[in-house]
Amino acid sequence: MDHFYDGQVRRYILQFIRMMSNFSYITGKNSKGASETLQVPVKYGDMSRQVAQIIKKGSENTLIAAPQISCYITNFAYDRDRMQNPYHIDKTHVREREFDDATQTYTGAPGQAHTIERIMPTPFELTFNADIFTTNTDQKLQILEQILVLFNPSLELQTTDNFLDWTSLSFVEITNILYTSRAIPSGIADDIDVATLTFRTPIWLSPPAKVKKLGVITNIITSMFADDGGENTLEEMLGESLSRQISTPGNYAVLLLGNRMTLLGEAGNGLTTHADNRQNKAFESQSQYGTKINWHKLEALYSKTILGGATQVKLQQSATNINGDDIIVNVTGTVAIDPQDETTLLFTVDVDTVPTNTMNAVDAVINPLTFNPVNAPNGTRYLLTESIGSAKDDSTVNVGPSAWGNLIANANDIVEKVGNIFVVDFNADFDDGSTQLLRGNLDSSSLGDSTFNQVHYVTNLTSGIQYKWLPENSMWVKSYEGFYEPGTWTIEF
Fold first, then answer.
1. For residue 62, what is the DSSP state?
2. Burial letters for 304-332: b for 16+ Cβ neighbours within 10 Å, e otherwise?
């Protein structure tokens, strides 16, 4: 159980002391024939040896200051007669007023909604004593008369003005009066006279309430079934009227570059897509994708807090094969707000959610017209950014370094060194009727187009970046970095 302390009993003590405060007495007439009205001080503490020494200021030669009132607890007991169902939970829905950070004031507009879950409190009964120290009978009677007229037989007590606190109201009831503590003196002792009033107060001790901030509905999952109990597709059940709409609170987009994730405003919607982040090309300007938004604004929208290493962001990607099949991939990672830039999250990808490579890794992404692979060992693989060589019927033309030999390859192809020559391992421009060679010696027309019409993944060993092949666009893109439109990303607090 987590530690908590609300000072509940302490508040009852303070209220009781306030109840015993502000009483006064009138002194006898002085040499000028005038009387003086003085206030009776109130302290907390019973007449123990230590308290007596404090009152005497640590000296036996000092008389106890009087009059004064001392309050203290004499009994603290469980009240079984007031016991309620201990498992009862009361739920109350409230809405606070909107707070303006600029003016540091509350406005008239509605703010965040909350649900308060109050757990049944535990009943107890407190017994208080109020010792009245006086030096003469007249003082005692003055003070008693002012106090006793208030209790007939009880006085209402309120510990807080919080309307959600169902234990704030109680009462104080006088139960006994000991007029004097004097007895027949023994020895040289001459104790000061004390009158004791006894009070009882029924109280409640409440466990902490659960305060829940109402969030925003982001997902609605519905299952639809046919009358015969079988599961039909939505198209079959709804026909041509089927439609789908994705709503994102705030209509925000995100841009992931490396490990830095930026929250973008509505200006970024529709300006680009994930597929536009090709190969190694970084985005030229942040501004072309929309206004940067402080992540704390999103926290306020959801009434949640981004916890470093605990909050997750899920990125949803989709691609389409040539045959029309939809491929959905969700990449997840933990995030933390950059302490230097509150518009940026530091994204740590969960490697288990990164798509599995479908091809052997490439050693680098290179321009074959400027890169010389003369020292490349056997088995080296490259992803090409430009075409090299000419058409197969004119293989004598080669505009790249001589180390490529008679290689004929296109942009986006993957080539591999086999022996002393480079061959095409992945043909980006594959056509079912093509006679281009795969791995140097196999007519690709015999393979069919199934391999080349699929979404593929490959990692660049030099940069550690994974790329994805989009057959519908005939291009390589970074597998999970890039721009994500509203509705394609989720934050899980």
1. S
2. bebeeeebebebbbebeeeeeeeeebebb
Q: Can you say whether residue 271 is alpha, beta or left, with left for phi > 0 and alpha for psi between -120 and 50 degrees?
A: alpha
Claim to verify: residue 173 and residue 73 sit in the same structural domain: yes
Q: Indicate whether 149 and 257 sit together in one domain.
A: no
Based on its alpha-carbon atoms, the radius of gyration of the chain, rounded to whole angstroms, reads 41
Cβ neighbours of residue 103 under 8 Å, at least 6 residues apart?
none
Q: In what order do the strands lie in the sheet with 475-478?
A: 456-459, 466-470, 475-478
Place of tokens 């530091």: 346
Containing 492, the helix (H) or strand (E) segment is: strand 489-492
- Distance in Å from the first CA to the final CA of the chain: 23
Q: Is residue 112 part of a domain?
A: no
Residue 473 lies in a domain: no
| Residue-wise pLDDT tens digits, 372-388 | 998 899 999 999 998 88
Asked whether residue 128 carries a pLDDT value surpassing 80, the answer given is: yes
Tokens standing for residue 198: 């006894």
Q: Which is nearest to 197 in space by CA: 8, 19, 10, 53?
A: 19
Following DSSP, what letter does each residue of 180-247 receive, concatenated? -------TT--PPEEEEEEEEEEEEEPPPPEEEE-------------TTSPPPPHHHHHGGG------
d(CA 469, CA 479): 8
Name which residue leads in pLDDT, 445 or 23.
23
pTM of this structure: 0.48
Which residue range forms the structural domain that includes residue 431? 364-453
Q: Which region among 126-140, 175-189, 459-473 has the lowest average model confidence (pLDDT)?
A: 175-189
pLDDT number for residue 63: 64
Concatenating the DSSP letter of every residue in 302-323 gives: HT----TTT-EEEEEEEEE-TT
How high does pLDDT run on average in the chain? Answer: 79
As a whole number of angstroms, the distance between CA 472 and CA 323 comes to 9
**Contact (CB, 8 A) for 246 and 217:** no
E strand or H helix at 10, and its extent?
helix 8-19
Closest CA to 97 of 107, 85, 89: 107
* Residues 364, 385: Cα–Cα separation, whole Å: 11
128 and 26 within one domain? yes
pLDDT for position 176: 95
Single-letter code of the amino acid located at 56:
K
Cα separation, 86 vs 120, whole angstroms: 6
CA angle centred on 488, ends 280 and 357, rounded to 5° = 45
